[in-house]
């Protein structure tokens, strides 16, 4: 029987920890368990059992189960996906290797380009040719295709990606190839570029389709196993998946297009940060999410994370653009670096401390976990500096061994650099924080933003430990640590709308604007998007629909996104859209080209459930009577020394409570460090608000 309180469950699988959150009415329960990397569904079920027990909830009372995972991303990075083949129009098999024919590092003669997911012997030409107007220039050679299929059988292919020239607009040949493949290879996964990425630009379309085929057997198998385990446990509710663009989709859609899930965990965190920004009245926010393996940074304006349709997976060269595998999917724009609690610290050949991107993960984990880890990590350094309580880490599930941290820090860092006392650990923490600061600065500068004008919203198991120091380095004066920050991405899943975006390429020159043709296309796209969204909705829901066109000057290679009116288009709209495009073009590039024709490239329709209005936070009644649990020595970045700090239990702090740093605020899933130059207060929604103190206060 369904619980009328609308009990909902969310699970986020990270590289080190799996976070599970259960909400029932106004009550919330959460847990962290170590990620079971060989069988991720087992970690999810372990966390699920814990929150069901905590809350006294029966499995059949859960009305909705929302899930996000980095499994697909990890498979692409580690190259642990399926054995796939690629079928493409004859003469184009090397596009995956040629790419844009550009060097992302102009002057490095040893530069390595990303290796294609499909090696050349498994890329097969298909005799066929369709023109951009849909004319059959060369019929599909089905007898030749059957000979290719015989080769596929011989090499035991698990999945096939099909990408033909101009199939984004005219998919008939791709569809016929699928019919033949399905008959001859019924057990093989088949992905068509006309369905995965129906847009022009064959390199991105082919790359996205191959990536989808590469992870689909793994992801679909995993998601189906998770659904079976949940059903066997008594959960008959829908299972929805978080997508990279910040919306939820159905299990069926997720298993068909798993490439849309590659950044699902970080997207949940950005959604949470956007909601918190609206609650706290913050216009410009910097989302900072740090877990056990990576740190993610995202800019948010008026509660809306920055979004994009261009994304690179597994950048292999100093995080440079162009050094990864391009995919065209709706994605929240963020920078992700290998800086987490499990990031390994070492001294390089030049005698510098280097932290990450390699991570100890959950197996074996940092040395202090006592699970066989032999390398110094950021968690070891934080423990040595007194920032972590060894008895309460991860809710007390993992007892940290301080002696093991001290040994590896002395061996890996201190002994090689002649550092003693707390300085090896301090060096590790300072370097990882500087790495994150540099990434945030570059991300903001590339978008023309002044980062010091933002409010930082920090969450994840590691971010509250470092947020104050990052704010100090970035010139940020205000930091918000949301309630439930340690499992922030999973909470973000519960705040996300059910959403789906459909994109189609249709090139129209505006002097020949055909409103009827465009309206027909948009209505078909709207129906497709609504069909996906309604599958995940129970009961009546209000939907929001956003329509966008990508425009460019004729002959140029880059487009600008222009919103469309919420009605059927008319002929006169062409001039209005041109005006919006030229205004945006002038803002970005400093000029207009009035005699140049404007051309559409792609059209998109996004349908989403209407979000609830955010609750507004207040400061609460002023209260300075907070009583610490105890005191312990903690390294304070403001004074540069280890000092005696009060340790507060977060759930003992009532709204309105205010005190000055240095201080520690402990809770089950994370720890917040309040540096010496910050004050901390609790607002009416339970969020911690840290603000820089005036100089006279600091000197006093």
Question: Topology, pairings included?
Answer:
Layout: E1 7-13, E2 17-24, E3 27-34, H1 40-55, E4 62-69, H2 71-78, E5 84-89, H3 95-98, E6 123-126, E7 129-130, E8 136-138, H4 142-154, E9 159-163, H5 172-184, E10 189-192, H6 193-196, H7 202-232, E11 239-242, E12 248-250, H8 251-256, H9 264-279, E13 284-290, E14 295-301, E15 304-305, E16 307-308, E17 311-313, E18 325-327, E19 331-332, E20 335-337, E21 343-347, E22 353-359, H10 378-384, H11 402-417, H12 423-446, E23 455-459, H13 463-474, E24 478-481, H14 488-495, E25 499-505, H15 515-535, E26 543-553, E27 560-563, H16 573-589, E28 598-609, E29 630-636, E30 641-649, E31 658-660, E32 663-666, E33 671-674, E34 678-682, E35 688-692, H17 695-699
Parallel strand pairs: 1-4, 4-11, 5-6, 5-9, 9-10, 13-23, 23-24, 30-32
Antiparallel strand pairs: 1-2, 2-3, 7-8, 11-12, 13-14, 14-15, 14-20, 16-19, 17-18, 21-22, 24-35, 25-28, 26-27, 26-28, 29-30, 31-34, 32-33, 34-35
N→C terminal distance: 61 Å
Number of helices: 17
Named CATH architecture of the domain at 265-496 = 2-Layer Sandwich
CATH-derived topology of the domain at 265-496 = Nucleotidyltransferase, domain 5
CATH class of the domain at 265-496: Alpha Beta
Q: What class do helices, strands and sheet pairing give?
A: alpha+beta
Radius of gyration: 26 Å
Largest sheet: number of strands, sense, barrel closure:
9 strands, mixed
Shape: globular
Determine the mean pLDDT: 88
* Helical residue percent band: 25-40%
Task: Report the sheet-strand fraction.
Answer: 25-35%
Oligomer: single chain
Task: Give the number of DSSP strands.
Answer: 35
Poorly predicted runs: 1-5
């Amino acid at each position: 029987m369904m619980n009328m309180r609308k009990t909902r469950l969310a699970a986020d699988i990270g590289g080190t920890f799996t976070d599970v959150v259960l909400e029932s009415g106004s009550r919330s329960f959460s847990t962290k368990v170590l990620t079971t990397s060989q069988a991720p569904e087992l970690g999810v079920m372990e966390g699920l059992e814990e929150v069901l027990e905590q809350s006294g909830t029966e499995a059949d009372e859960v009305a909705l189960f929302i899930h996000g995972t980095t499994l697909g991303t990890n498979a692409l990075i580690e190259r642990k996906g399926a054995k796939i083949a690629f079928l493409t129009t004859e003469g184009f098999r090397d596009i995956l290797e040629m790419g844009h024919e550009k060097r992302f590092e102009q002057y490095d003669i040893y530069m390595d380009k990303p290796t294609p997911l499909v090696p050349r012997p498994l890329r097969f030409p298909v005799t066929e040719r369709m023109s951009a107007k849909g004319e059959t220039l060369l019929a599909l050679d089905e007898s030749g295709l059957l000979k290719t299929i015989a080769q596929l059988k011989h090499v035991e292919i698990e999945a096939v990606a099909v990408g033909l020239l101009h199939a984004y607009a005219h998919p008939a040949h791709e569809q016929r190839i699928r019919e033949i493949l399905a008959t001859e290879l019924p057990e093989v996964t088949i992905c068509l570029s006309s369905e995965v990425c129906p847009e022009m630009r064959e390199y991105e379309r082919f790359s996205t389709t191959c990536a989808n085929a590469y992870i689909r057997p793994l992801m679909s198998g995993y998601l189906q196993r998770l659904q079976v385990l949940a059903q066997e446990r008594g959960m008959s509710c829908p299972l929805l998946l978080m997508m990279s663009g910040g919306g939820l989709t159905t299990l069926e859609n997720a298993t068909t297009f798993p490439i849309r899930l590659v950044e699902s965990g970080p997207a949940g965190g950005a959604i949470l940060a956007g909601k918190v920004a609206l609650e706290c009245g913050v216009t410009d926010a910097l989302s900072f999410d740090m877990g056990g393996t990576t740190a993610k940074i995202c800019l948010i304006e008026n509660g809306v994370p920055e979004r994009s349709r261009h994304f690179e997976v597994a950048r292999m060269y100093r995080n440079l653009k162009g050094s990864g595998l391009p995919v065209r999917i709706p994605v929240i724009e963020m920078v992700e670096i290998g800086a987490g609690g499990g990031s390994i610290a070492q001294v390089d050949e030049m005698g510098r401390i280097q932290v990450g991107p390699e991570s100890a993960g959950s197996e074996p984990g940092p040395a202090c976990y006592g699970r066989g880890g032999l390398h110094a990590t950021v968690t070891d350094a934080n423990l040595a500096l007194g920032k972590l309580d060894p008895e309460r880490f991860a809710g007390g599930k993992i007892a940290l061994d301080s002696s093991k941290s001290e040994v590896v820090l002395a061996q890996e860092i201190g002994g090689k650099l002649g550092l003693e006392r707390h300085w090896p650990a301090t060096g590790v923490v300072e370097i990882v924080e500087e790495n994150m600061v540099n990434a945030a600065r570059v991300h903001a500068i590339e978008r023309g933003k002044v980062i010091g004008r933002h409010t930082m919203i920090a969450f994840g198991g590691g971010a509250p430990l470092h947020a104050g120091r990052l704010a100090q380095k970035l010139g940020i004066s205000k930091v918000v640590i949301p309630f439930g920050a340690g499992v922030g991405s999973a909470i973000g899943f519960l705040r996300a709308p059910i959403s789906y975006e459909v994109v189609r390429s249709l090139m129209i020159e505006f002097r020949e604007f055909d409103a009827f043709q465009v309206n027909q296309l948009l209505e078909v796209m709207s129906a497709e998007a609504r069909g996906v969204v309604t599958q995940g909705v129970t009961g009546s829901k209000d939907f929001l629909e956003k329509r966008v066109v990508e425009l460019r000057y004729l002959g140029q290679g880059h487009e600008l996104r222009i919103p469309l009116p919420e009605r059927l288009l008319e002929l006169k709209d062409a001039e209005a859209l041109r005006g919006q495009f030229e205004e945006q073009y002038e803002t970005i590039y400093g000029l207009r080209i009035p005699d140049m024709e404007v051309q559409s490239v792609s059209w998109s329709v996004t349908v989403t459930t209407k979000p609830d209005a955010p609750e507004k936070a207040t400061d609460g009644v002023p209260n300075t009577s907070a009583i610490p649990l105890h005191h312990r020595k903690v390294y304070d970045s403001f004074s540069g020394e280890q000092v005696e700090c009060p340790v507060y239990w977060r759930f003992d702090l009532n709204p309105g409570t205010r005190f000055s740093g240095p201080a520690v605020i402990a809770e089950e899933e994370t720890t917040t460090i309040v540096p010496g130059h910050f004050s901390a207060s609790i607002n009416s929604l339970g969020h911690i608000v840290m603000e820089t103190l005036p100089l006279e206060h600091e000197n006093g």
